[in-house]
Amino acid sequence: MSSTTATRARSTTGTEGTRRDGRRSRIVAAGFLLPALLLLGALVVYPIGYSVQRSLFDRSGSSFVGLDNYLSLFTDDSLRTAVKNNLVWLVVAPAVATALGLVFAVLTERVRWGTAFKLLVFMPMAISMLAAGIIFRLVYEQDPDRGVANAVWVGVHDTFAESSVFPKARPLPVHPLKAAGDGAFVTKEPVRAGRPVRLPLVGVAPAQMPEGARPAAEPAGTDPGTVTGTAWLDFTRGGGGRPNEVDPAERGLAGLRIEAVRDGKVVATATAAADGTFALPADRADGALLRLPASNFREQYNGVEWLGPSLVTPAIIGAYVWMWAGFAMVLIGAGLAAVPRELLEAARVDGANEWQVFRRITVPLLAPVLAVVLVTLMINVLKIFDLVFVIAPGSAQDDANVLALQLYRSSFGTDADLGVGSAIAVLLLLLVVPVMVLNIRRMRREARR
């Protein structure tokens, strides 16, 4: 055999060996990948395929309806509300959480207690969505004695706006007072100096009486230079009292505001003492009508209806931001630690202030990290369910509805329709896919750099 023939034989043998090794490597790789592929097919591919198929059938699953279930997503009021609310969540919640995380990460970078602050902000991440929903359901309670949000809101409001003293007080027909039309009450006859005026009211619970109220008393003496009188609660506990008479067991309406009105103008004012007595100068009040202004009877301010139809979605978004701002802060803080300090210092040396450094240097350098956080939160809010289900009361759940909640209600509610539920699941998948594609492209670009 010539040397050339021998060389060809060795080459052929080597090529066949390489091919066998390649086939063996592919078989081994397929063997390792097969369990994962089977698991992926069982848990992901099959459910997606079945959901797409089921969305094309009616409630019972026996009749093909085509795209009717998808059309109902945009014709049914509750489903349209869910789509609209999901868009609000998608635009607002990730942006606010990312912005807060950026602010927290930047501001805590230079303070000694920054680590402790970051720990406090990140702690809500350790709480489940269900637990956070229960917490914020209590926070948003309408009753200021139970709801923290309204307790703070009412406290601030009452600091700047005087609350009413007797919100439900009113006169009886036998009393010398009548309604003035705007929530106020006015005497039926003009008052005269030297003749004590009686202003009895009812409708005030004993527990709501001012703390300094004392037993009602008639004015001392009859000074012709003043118009005097008594404003009191004309009610005796246990019965036995006489209407329009100041009985010993009845208490004065301490703090009640009284106005003397002549020709539609207020000419004098007074405030009832602890025993209900008051006095007005006769030169201005004689011959005038006495009015109890509506401010005495205005209902007490009970705060904001956080879980009402108009505010329930922003309130739940607030709870979500409380939970996820810490997540954004930690990721952005990690990216901020990798920012070259030389660039920041060079900008400050060139005369840039802190805002300019933040806007023109820090934010552009953190753009990849901000994109990761924003995309992650966008995917997360598209699936939001727990907070809405727990926080929104039954009366406002339709107004707070989102696609994941509607998916649950359509699939497992009292009027279940698995066709519509499957259509909602497919719609959620279609909404998530573009965000995932953008995220994958961004990661590939970062890997090529």
UniProtKB/TrEMBL annotation:
Ranges for domain ABC transmembrane type-1 come to 83-439
Membrane-spanning residues: 27-49, 87-107, 119-140, 319-340, 361-382, 418-440
Against CDD domains, the record matches this protein to: TM_PBP2
Q: Name the membrane topology term.
A: Multi-pass membrane protein
Asked if the record carries the keyword Membrane, the reply is yes
**Primary residence:** membrane
The entry's keywords: Cell membrane, Membrane, Transmembrane, Transmembrane helix, Transport
Q: Which InterPro entries match?
A: MetI-like, MetI-like_sf, UgpAE/MalFG_permease
Where located?
Cell membrane
Per the UniProt entry, the signal peptide is none
Task: Identify the Gene3D superfamilies for this entry.
Answer: MetI-like (1.10.3720.10)
Q: Specify the domain of life of the species encoding this protein.
A: Bacteria
Cite the residue spans of the region called Disordered.
1-21
Per the record, the coiled-coil ranges are none
Biased composition, Low complexity: where in the chain?
1-16
* Keyword hit for Plastid: no
The UniProt family comment states: Belongs to the binding-protein-dependent transport system permease family.
Q: What's this protein's name?
A: Sugar ABC transporter permease
- The organism encoding this protein is Streptomyces cinereoruber
